[in-house]
Amino acid sequence: MKLSNETVNVLKNFSSINQNILVESGNKLRTISTMKNILAEADVSEVFPSRFGIYDLNEFLGVLSLAPGAELNFDNDKYLMVNGGSTEIKYMYSDPSILTTAPNFNPPSCDVEINITKEVLANLLKASAVMQLPDVVFTNGTITATDLKNSTSNNFAEKMENVVDDPFEAHFKAENLKMIPGDYKVNISTTANISNWIGDVASYWIAMEAKIS
Predict the structure, then answer these.
(1) Average pLDDT along the chain, 213 residues, taken 10 residues at a time
(2) What are the residues whose beta carbons fall under 8 Å from the beta carbon of 121, sequence distance 6 or more?
(3) Beta pairing class for 156-159 and 142-146
(4) Which one of 98, 133, 165 terminates a domain?
(5) What pTM did the predictor assign?
(6) Which residues pair with 31 in a beta bridge?
(7) Around Cβ 42, how many Cβ atoms within 10 Å?
């Protein structure tokens, strides 16, 4: 098996959420942050024949870069063989019991649906980093980067095309918005205080922050 560039990019993104991953047999990759406030999953083109654990995903991606386009052999249940030309790498699996793994999840019903474009999301996260604004607030037709604990904070706002009928407000930490760049449909459960970001490549469940009174 060879890993596609798309799958490698998914793994790179997932490594920003959790340094380790448990890959189940099949074509779905899932991960969850150590704080259990971000859950991500993606369907990939490869079908993994068996279950295996990676403790340091960034290290694993670095190993794959040593032999670009290499064939991956999953015949052994203790280690992975990476074969590329004259290069042969034996990479040991991790014990699944020491990994932070994504649980089965029963999604709550959502009562707000909005769309955010790739451009708006990129602008917002760039502004958050440049202006050191830790919070992101969704309201009707607007998404704002701000500092909710600072009454004199600078703000950066982007207008969104779609406006929901009923007033709502959703708070996020900018550091938790670790999606692969793209357009997203965002379903929000205002009762469960959680959101589902659905993109073309991956989807994410991201916990919302409590509103500051």
Answers:
(1) 94 97 96 96 96 96 90 94 91 95 89 92 96 94 93 92 76 96 94 95 95 65
(2) 177, 179, 181, 182, 184
(3) antiparallel
(4) 98
(5) 0.92
(6) 40
(7) 22
